[in-house]
Amino acid sequence: MSLAEGAPTRAQRIRSILGGSAGNLVEWYDWYAYSAFTLYFAPVFFPKASQTAQLLNAAAIFAVGFLMRPIGAWAMGVYADRHGRKAALTLSVTLMCVGSLLIAGAPGYEAAGWGSPALLVLARLLQGASVGGEYGASAVYLSEMAERAHRGFYSSFQYVTLVGGLLVAQSVLILLQLTLSEMALETWGWRVPFAVGGLLAIAVYRIRRNLLETPSFRAVQAGEEPRSTGLELFRRYPREAATVVLLTAGGTLAFYAYTTYMQKFLVNTAGFGRETASWIVTPALALYALLQPFAGALSDRIGRKPLMVGFGVAGTLLTVPIFLGLERVGSPAGAFALVLAALVIVTGYTSINAVVKAELFPAHIRTLGVALPYALANTLFGGTAEYVALWLKQAGVERGFYAYVTAMIAVSLTVYWRMADTQKTSRIAED
User: Fold this and answer.
1) CA angle 140, 125, 261 (to 5 degrees)
2) What pLDDT sits at residue 220?
3) Lower CB density within 10 Å: C or N end of the chain?
4) Confidence of residue 402 (pLDDT cuts 50, 70, 90)
5) CB 178 within 8 A of CB 10
6) Distance, CA of 81 to CA of 371 (rounded, Å)
7) Residue 5 has pLDDT above 50, yes or no
8) Is the dihedral angle over the CA atoms 8, 14, 15, 16 positive or is it negative?
9) Residue 375 and residue 388: Cα distance in Å, rounded?
10) At what angle do helices 38-45 and 51-83 cross, to 10 degrees?
11) pTM higher than 0.70, yes or no?
């Protein structure tokens, strides 16, 4: 049976999921390259200052990129619900490409003054809009393309590729550290990953133009459902939207604390060299990425709720001990074990959060329902994680950040505990 006549075959589903996931990897590589190379390019864009102050300025621009995520989530969520998941995925990678190439060619502060960080802000705004739309569109695309019995497994590949993007960025960092001198990296080598990311985004654009559209969206096209709008979302589905915000808050803060901020923490607080920190974080992230499908498959067997509750309980109890242990750890092996423990804990959220959110909404407003509340929570808690951590460190109360992460995980735990298991109440099954 052809796609136009009915549901895609299992082989077509798998090819579409793999194609969508590959594009997701490149998108997130482009996004995370900024964080991975901040230690090298921060002095280029900001006046001479202490390392913490330079990192604080760069982290502020990282957070600014998150301000565009709700706007991108709203615009491309509506676009995906009205014009198709494939169309939104193609648009998001176009914006990411432009942002990456802008960073690659941006002049330094000595050449352009404050125009230099201003251009960096513009690039991050474009990338923020891109990933704001990317998360919702890819989460919904993978969830809708997957067979019901394996929806947790296949949708987990969103975070496999999301973490994979971070891992590739870390791997490129290590490769450049091995092949270039410190001076070369600080003067021009940091531009290489952004140029590569822009070129890869062009290739992904071609892949995404040839993706299949999901059966759920085709059903929406054939029906007469209300049009997807922000007003429609919050008027008809306020409980579901609030659930997405609150279940995301602790999970996204923990994710950014344990991943993108962790390398800076290892250098700036634990006292490891930049190269050593890279070698600690990168293999831990590789194992973390491999864990996602196993956790997703487990959720197909026992439900989504037990995994989220497990993350909430472990994160609440162990976040402070893990960071305190990293403060005084004496060896890279010990640091690796602690970082990996944190990543295993947050797997209970990251492996299934996409499908949980998708299962809350009907198809005609599903992308917007996933994307916009998530982006709001991500902007408030994920995008500001590094800035809050560095600000508290500069203020002399760094351990306040550990308490902050713990408190937000506890807030999300109350939501996980009280909400229904979406595997059993999934609205994707209604499509």
Assistant:
1) 80
2) 82
3) N
4) very high
5) no
6) 11
7) no
8) positive
9) 18
10) 100
11) yes
Residues ≥6 apart with Cβ < 8 Å to 256: 382, 383, 385, 386
Domains and CATH numbers, the chain: 10-430 (1.20.1250.20)
How far is it, in rounded angstroms, from Cα 361 to Cα 226? 13
**Per-residue pLDDT reduced to its tens digit, 99-129:** 999 999 988 877 777 788 888 888 888 988 8
How far is Cα 11 from Cα 131, in angstroms, rounded to an integer? 28
Distance CA 255, CA 343 (A): 8
pLDDT tens digit string along 311-352?
999 999 999 999 999 999 989 999 999 999 999 999 999 999
What is the token pair recorded at 258? 């344990």
For position 212, what pLDDT does the model report? 87
Cα–Cα distance, 143 to 395 (Å, whole number): 43
The residue ranking higher by pLDDT, 305 or 114, is 305
Nearest to 347 by CA among 394, 300, 294: 294
Kindly give, in sequence order, each residue whose CB lies less than 8 Å from that of residue 318, ignoring residues fewer than 6 positions away. 341, 342, 345
Q: Whose structure tokens read 């690039």?
A: 123
Q: What is the spatial distance between Cα 205 and Cα 200, in angstroms, rounded to a whole number? A: 9
**What is the DSSP track for 316-374?**
HHHHHHHHHHHHH--SHHHHHHHHHHHHHHHHHHHTTHHHHHHTTS-GGGHHHHHHHHH
Q: Which residue has the tokens 């970082």?
A: 339
pLDDT in tens, 141-170: 988 888 888 899 998 998 899 888 888 887
Residue 309, classified by CB atoms within 10 Å of its CB into exposed (0-12), middle (13-18) or buried (19+), is middle
| pLDDT of amino acid 11 | 81
User: Contact at 8 Å (CB) between 167 and 405?
Assistant: no
Q: What is the mean pLDDT of residues 46-71?
A: 72
Q: How confident is the model at residue 9 (pLDDT cuts 50, 70, 90)?
A: confident
Q: Which amino acid is at 265?
A: F
Cβ 89 vs Cβ 140: under 8 Å: no
Report whether 277 contacts 329 (CB < 8 A).
Answer: no
CB 26 within 8 A of CB 166: no
Can you give the C-alpha Rg of the chain in angstroms? 21
